[in-house]
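Hi R.,

As promised on Friday, here is the backbone we talked about, encoded as structure tokens. Could you run it through your design pipeline when you get a chance and send me back a sequence?
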């Protein structure tokens, strides 16, 4: 019935599956046909019974055969439904937030995401070495099968309470909810405290994923300009008077994408403004651990979690695959967030949470942060210099931030640049996605860890020169194929 080639590069199991699937699909093995027993087919094909079991399991998983108790295996009698035509998928723009998030999460061997929000993989591999993971696996076997608590792994919540306490933020373990990264934390906050049609204030520019999340829930967004020393409080006051927003979302430390941090004076005036207008503040602190100061001021520290809801994450500094974030807030608010977490995902991954807990309690996490800060400080200076030589105008800030915010020369077609860069192996992050409508100037965000690449700087210099000479060039027309 089948012929197996032992010299072929394809395994015997794969050969058996491929040939039997062909016999079924072309009708030589009609629906309901009984297949040879495992022992009989193994004898006929001169293979082990384990090989036949693996092949039958794969065919069963594909719906081509089925097992009947005490009877054996049969060709599935259920007709396979014809494949439905794919629904039309709307084309998304390179300047669209959802398109960009999807692209940044994909792995491309020949494309470097020089504007990504994550650390390069080789910067994180030492932290999660095979030796450490093997030790963790041996020690934490129970976490593979046990359900996690809705609030999160208790020892990790205790570790976070200590960590926040050292930063001057009084958060008991009962005031901390573990989440699937900061993205879920922000989603839980908005779902618990907002309804479609509500208004919130957000910084401009700011993380495009937050804007997309809120818009998807029917929330109205009003922008507040981000200045060198923090949010523009004069504009925020006007927004509070005119719109009465329920929440204000801000990043105090290492703001994404500009890299700035809110100074102490602005932070205290912001809290006073929030009290006058009964405004809750969501402080996104996902990059705060990278700040070079030993104990930088956070709003949650100055406010003592009365009016501030603090959001943090380990996905940025440990690994994007470790989806562990947290919310620290007043107890009555935390209960609301917990209820919404239960209704959405029930519980979190205790395996990931135990892993993070081990890293925190062992001291490995602190040493890892020190290495990251040192590398970022060096790399950021190099990226700023390289972009300047290429003809861009980066913000001159050397504070260890992950991002470099750089202005393009006037007259450059952003779409043409983004599309051409992708063809040449670089995924750029355009500034438009960080604004509610359009950026007032042509900006790009670069990742200080990923963009320190001479090839990128050379490419940008050549491409910007070409685009400046040909300002009317079509976005679909490659502009750098002859830039050798």
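Update: got your reply. Pasting your designed sequence below so it's all in one thread:
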């Amino acid at each position: 019935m089948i012929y197996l080639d032992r010299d072929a590069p394809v395994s015997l199991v794969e050969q058996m599956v491929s040939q039997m699937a062909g016999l079924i699909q072309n009708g030589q093995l009609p629906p309901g046909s009984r297949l040879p027993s495992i022992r009989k087919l193994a004898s006929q094909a001169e293979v082990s019974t384990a090989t036949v079991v693996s092949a039958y399991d794969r065919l069963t998983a594909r719906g081509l055969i089925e097992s009947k108790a005490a009877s054996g295996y049969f060709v599935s009698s259920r007709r396979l439904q014809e494949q439905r035509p794919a629904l039309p998928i709307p084309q998304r723009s390179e300047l669209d937030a959802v398109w960009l998030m999807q692209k940044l999460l994909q792995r491309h061997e020949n494309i470097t995401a020089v504007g990504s929000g994550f650390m390069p993989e080789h910067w994180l591999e030492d932290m999660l070495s095979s030796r450490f993971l093997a030790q963790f696996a041996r020690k934490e076997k129970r976490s593979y099968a046990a359900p996690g608590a809705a609030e999160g792994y208790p020892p990790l919540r205790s570790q976070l309470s200590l960590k926040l306490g050292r930063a001057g933020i009084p958060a008991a373990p009962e005031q901390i909810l573990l989440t699937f990264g900061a993205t879920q934390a922000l989603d839980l906050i908005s779902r618990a405290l907002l309804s479609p049609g509500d208004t919130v204030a957000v910084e401009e520019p700011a993380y495009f994923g937050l804007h997309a999340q809120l818009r998807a829930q029917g929330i109205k967004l009003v922008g507040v300009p981000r200045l060198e020393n923090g949010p523009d409080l004069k504009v925020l006051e006007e927004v509070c008077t005119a719109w009465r927003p329920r929440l204000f979302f801000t990043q105090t430390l290492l703001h994404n994408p500009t890299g700035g941090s809110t100074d102490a004076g602005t932070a205290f005036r912001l809290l006073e403004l929030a009290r006058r207008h009964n405004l809750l503040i969501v402080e996104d602190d996902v990059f705060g651990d990278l700040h070079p100061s030993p104990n930088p001021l956070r709003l949650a520290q100055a406010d003592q979690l009365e009016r501030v809801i603090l959001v943090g994450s380990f996905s940025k500094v440990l690994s994007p695959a470790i989806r562990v974030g947290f919310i620290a807030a007043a107890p009555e608010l935390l209960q609301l967030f917990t209820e919404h977490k239960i209704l959405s995902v029930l519980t979190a991954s205790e395996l990931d949470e135990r892993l993070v807990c081990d890293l925190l309690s062992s001291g490995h996490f602190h040493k890892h942060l020190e290495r990251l800060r040192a590398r970022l400080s060096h790399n950021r200076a190099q990226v700023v210099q390289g972009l300047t030589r290429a003809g861009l105008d980066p913000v001159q800030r050397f504070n260890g931030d992950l991002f470099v915010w750089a202005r393009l020369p006037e007259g450059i077609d952003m779409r043409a640049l983004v599309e051409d860069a992708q063809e040449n192996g670089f995924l750029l992050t355009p500034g438009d996605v960080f604004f509610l409508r359009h950026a007032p100037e042509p900006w790009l965000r670069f990742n200080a860890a990923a963009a320190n690449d001479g090839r990128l700087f050379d490419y940008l210099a050549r491409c910007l020169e070409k685009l400046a000479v040909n300002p009317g060039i079509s976005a679909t027309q490659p502009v750098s194929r002859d830039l050798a």
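One thing I noticed while checking it: Residues 80-84, 474-484 have pLDDT under 50 and may be disordered.

Thanks again,
M.
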